[in-house]
Amino acid sequence: MSSEQTSENMQKLIKFDRLKFSASEDNMMLKQIEATHEPDGREFDVNPLLHLVEQIFTCATPKSDVTFDSLDLKTNDVEALEDKTHQAGFISTLEALAYTIDRISCEIRCKCSGGEEAHQRAISVLNMVSSHPWDAKLVLSLSAFAVNYGEFWLVFQSYNSNDLAKSMAILKQVPEILGRSSMLKPQFNSIKDLIKAMLDVANCIVKFRELPSQYITTDESAFSTALANIPIAVYWAIRCVVACASQIARLKGLQGDEHPLSTSEAWEISALVHKILMSKKKPSFDADDKRRMEAYQMLLELFKTSHSDNMKVDIDVFKDTHVLLLISNLDISHDELEVLEDIYRESLKKRPGIQYEIVWLPIIDQSDPWMESSQKLFENHRARMPWYTRHDPLRSPSPEDGAVITFIKKEWHYGRKPILVVLGPRGQVVCQNALHMMWIWKDEAFPFTTSREEDLWKEATWKLDFLVDGIDPRISEWIAAGKIICLYGGDDIEWIQRFTTIAKKVAESAGISLEMVYVGKSNPKELVYTNIKTIIEDKLSHHLKGLTSIWYFWVRIESMLYSKMRLGQTVEKDPTMQEILKMLSFDNSHEGWALLSKGSEEITKAKGDSFLTCLRQYNQWEVHVQKKGFLQALKDHLLQIHPPHHCNQFELLVAAGMIPETLVCSECGRKMEKFFVYRCCDV
Fold it and tell me: Could you give the dihedral angle defined by the CA atoms of residues 374, 375, 377 and 379, in that order, rounded to the nearest 10 degrees?
């Protein structure tokens, strides 16, 4: 490497290093910047002026290589510009600011070489706008540069259509510049990068200044830091203004084969962009977080306080009414919606005077991408719902929506499964999740209070009519007729075929009328659907009508468990809870199961293998049928063949924080082990 090249590279590094400052130099520079700030209390709305500046940059900056075709100004842009800037008072404000803008324009028009000269020129500009707030200082500086930048590109745009512009273009060496468009592209891109960085910072600071005073409190470090760093951000933005003006001056003075942008200048501009973006990060504290916090606190106070009615919490149509907030994401299932719709419509028919309304509040979490398909799914859900719905989903990016989502998750324990929050007529929270009550007792659970839930459990007995609760009208008719009814489930079609065949033979031998109904599994997917087809084709038994009915049968049982746990009941002391757990353990096993009952008598149940064995051994206990009755004789024999060792298991969905630390086995009373299961909804 030659000594000349070494010297040139050293000069580049020295020039680039001028943009770096030590901590002490930073403090000295900040003091110098703040010394220029002498506000006189007069302020003006900077938004119309900033918008005008953005329009100039947008219309003037070429989108591709510098050609006349790429520089057309669109009519609709002009119309939009006139709408935004011809506001009352803006023209008079602009007239008052014209002198200051012109002074700054003249100051930055001269060619700058960077380093200390650029710093001094930026300080000079700050002195010219010393009486203005920091956001106005920057917007005025950008306006001054926009004048120079706009004039430069206006000549290009009018070159072919206006004789005056053509003459001016010749003086400004436009043909020479156009002839070097490919060489100049890096320089145009550099200016474009600087302009984008300046506008980003300007918009950030303007938004900061527009925050209501309650969002900016000097005792909070984040806001104090943001306020303290605004001056340095404005300074670096004005340094960018000076750098851009320098590049425009170079273009106008371009001669011969002079290279338009040296490597050292490219480094300096790159460093400026980095510096201004870093300065933007300091004042661009997350004001949205502050809004979320304020809105969250407001919600806390709102729901802690009782009101004369719930109009503060809801809208006028809900005055003196219980409001049920259905909160879910867009994945709320067809089954859930269909059953809830049926309950709601039945309530309107059966109890037209009932004073509650349902409102759907859909939530879109940050982890859920919002796509066109999301909008369609949301609209489809809304279209089918017979109750009130929010006009659009709650989405985390919005500060206010984010506060509501945070509140719902923290205070009402919303996860990803639907919940039904009940608000009383005075806006108070009556129940954080009444969905379990709704599934079990439908509108009989109204007004969905804890005391009402306790009363309903006192009235309930573990009988077949409570277990099926009208899900299948045929079963209700058979119960009333005193028939022996068998419910059975599982997904093993071979067991189903063996069980139904031998059950029919035993019923015939015993001379009883037996009605069998297949109730599938709690996750009724393809296998259950296939089993139903086989059951129909082979005429094995009846079945619950549709997969939704099967889903509802099992979700009611699961809801019973959650309801009991919410009321503080335990397996050791609550016989009904023991029965619920047995049913759930049947559902979670890989084998079949069955239960029999007659009218309002107690239920007899067992796992699949035990039931098959018992039925196959009918000849051993048929002698007791005459004396004890069929069901009692069956039950006694089941107890005799009960396996000495058994294992129950079941899965619980983590809902509203109601998973107990310990549970005991419903049969042997031992403490059950707890495992974590991760399962996709499609399994």
Answer: 160
CA dihedral 599, 603, 604, 606 (to 10 degrees): 130
**How far is residue 438's CA from residue 436's CA, in Å, rounded to a whole number?**
5
Q: Is 5 left (phi over 0), alpha (psi -120 to 50) or beta?
A: alpha
* Pairwise CA distance, residues 196 & 237, whole Å: 11
Tell me, yes or no, if the pTM score tops 0.70: no
In Å, the largest CA–CA distance within the chain is 121
Instruction: With respect to residue 139, please indicate whether it lies within any of the assigned structural domains.
Output: yes
* pLDDT profile of the chain (683 residues), mean per 10: 40 39 64 87 85 86 45 39 52 81 83 61 90 91 89 72 70 59 70 83 80 53 69 86 79 48 48 54 50 60 54 58 91 94 88 79 81 89 91 76 82 89 87 95 92 95 92 92 93 94 94 94 86 94 93 95 91 90 88 89 88 93 91 91 59 53 58 56 44
d(Cα 616, Cα 623) in Å, to the nearest integer?
14
3-state SS, residue 607: strand
Do 155 and 199 sit in the same domain of this protein?
yes
Owning domain of residue 366: 288-305+313-459
Asked whether residue 405 falls in the same domain as residue 273, the answer is no
Angle between helices 23-35 and 115-128 (to 10 degrees): 30
Selection from 179, 178, 175, 140 nearest residue 62 by Cα: 178
Domain boundary among 394, 425, 459: 459
- Among the listed residues 451, 447, 434, 383, the one whose alpha carbon sits nearest the alpha carbon of residue 559: 434
Indicate which CATH number applies to the domain containing 359: 3.40.30.10
DSSP sequence for 348-405: HHH-TT--EEEEEEEEE-TTS---HHHHHHHHHHHHH-SSEE-SS-EETTSHHHHHHH
d(CA 574, CA 454): 13
